[in-house]
Amino acid sequence: MTDWAAFAAELGDIPSITDRALVRQKSRDFFWYSPILKPLLNHKSADLVVCPRNEADVVATLALCARHRVPLTPRGAGTGNYGQAVPLEGGVVLEMTGMDRILALEDGLLTVEPGRRLIDIERAVAGQGWELRMYPSTKRTATIGGFVGGGSGGIGSVTYGGLRERGNIVGARVVSCEPEPRIRELRGDAVGRVNHAYGTTGIITALTLPLAPRLPWTDVVACFDDFMTAVNCGRMLALSDGIAKKLVTVVASPLPQYFRGMDVPAGKHVVIAMIAKHALVGWEDHLAQFGGTEILRRSTAEAEGNPEFTPVYEYTWNHTTLHALRADKSVTYLQSLFPADRALALVEETFHAYGEEVMIHLEFQRVAGAVTCSALQVVRFTTPERLNAIIADLRARGIMIANPHEYTLEDGAGHKRIGTEQPAFKREMDPLGLLNPGKMRSFVADQPPPASAS
Ligand SMILES: Cc1cc2nc3c(=O)[nH]c(=O)nc-3n(C[C@H](O)[C@H](O)[C@H](O)COP(=O)(O)OP(=O)(O)OC[C@H]3O[C@@H](n4cnc5c(N)ncnc54)[C@H](O)[C@@H]3O)c2cc1C
User: Fold this and answer.
1) pTM attached to this predicted model
2) Ligand 1 pocket by Cβ (under 6 Å)
3) What's residue 194's pLDDT?
4) How far is CA 139 from CA 44, 182, 363, in A?
5) Fewer Cβ close by (within 10 Å): the C or N end of the chain?
6) Arithmetic mean of pLDDT, 320-326
7) CA gap 111, 95 in Å, rounded
8) What distance lies between CA 156 and its chain's CA centroid?
């Protein structure tokens, strides 16, 4: 049993939170999207939240946790969808938002502390003509460390692919969880050991990422009567290398009816995109070719800066599900990746297979250079058995499902990434198995020596 008052005292001047309600609040993320995860994770809570101000605070906290055999779960903004930041075994939540300094920016290469919000990174680098290559639709709340630790890709992935594509993250500084923590500098492909590892393989204290040249983006939305015409318009836009874009999304009717603040006529399917201002002529020609009707055009910067507007990216990726959930608590979602060579045929097949039970929402993106689409389908949930039957059926058709109703790396949205690198690195960085325990199911800790009394 840990004496939490004594533990907090041993932290010295490192800030911590003991208020039960606040600790519980900071032990949660968006796992409640899943009716399967909700009952499993709803009651979980840390015992203490520690708020490091710098790397030395992280090292001191990890040393203390290792000495007392206390589990520790890092947290950014807590917007993960699969309970990534939920401390299954209690202990310490390490809230990283106090570590938010830009450490270097030179020739488009940014080094930043993990707790900085993505929107604040963009604001800081804009003056030098740069922007993030990609960000999740939670850009206005999520942190860079949480995105790398628990996310996959998003706005910008239509050009640069996902976070895991070689070159998108080029460096990470990581602290191990041991009585005497070590700091490892990862470079290049080795950063994959902490990308989408849910914090199980060490605490990231700095990240180095290449940026993209900054462009003035324009939000556009177009309506279509026919779903497959909208899909073809989206796919060809994604493939049109002459039209600079940051986002290409297709949302099938009736999902746009859930979009508050975007007046989409009933029965219409929509293409949502972010197009560079200088490419709008190309967009207009493209839209005319497919017979779509533009219903919204606004500068993305204006939408971000004015509380009366919502930037269109906040209707895409996993925000689409959020809009549906706000209106109808009975829906949930899936995450699918369509093989590039059969994507359109499979999209059409699954559009007809389930009707409105599985409402289609596609995100076009590059995967290893090829343009394909992923889907975050919104599902009218009935029973776990039916949900699993839909997942099995989609898999049987050849569609990859990253199951968002599982919280472990192996069974859930991390299963394609875990490979052999992350478990081996975990043994090196967390031999006692204290980092976010329960998330890497296959890891068995070494027999630990008895905890020291100090
Ligand atoms: C409405 C909505 C839309 C979303 N859209 C997208 C999207 O477009 N693309 C996408 O990829 N995801 C998306 N997500 C999921 C989530 O927002 C992103 O993954 C986001 O980047 C997480 O950032 P965060 O700061 O909230 O991280 P958290 O949820 O706090 O943490 C995520 C994971 O990273 C770990 N972690 C945090 N900091 C560190 C650190 N310093 N060292 C090691 N591990 C750490 C945590 O333990 C946790 O496992 C969405 C979620 C919601 C609710």
Assistant:
1) 0.97
2) 29-30, 73-81, 84-85, 96, 114, 136-138, 142-143, 145-147, 149-154, 198-199, 203-204, 317-319, 322, 436
3) 96
4) 26, 31, 17
5) N
6) 97
7) 20
8) 13
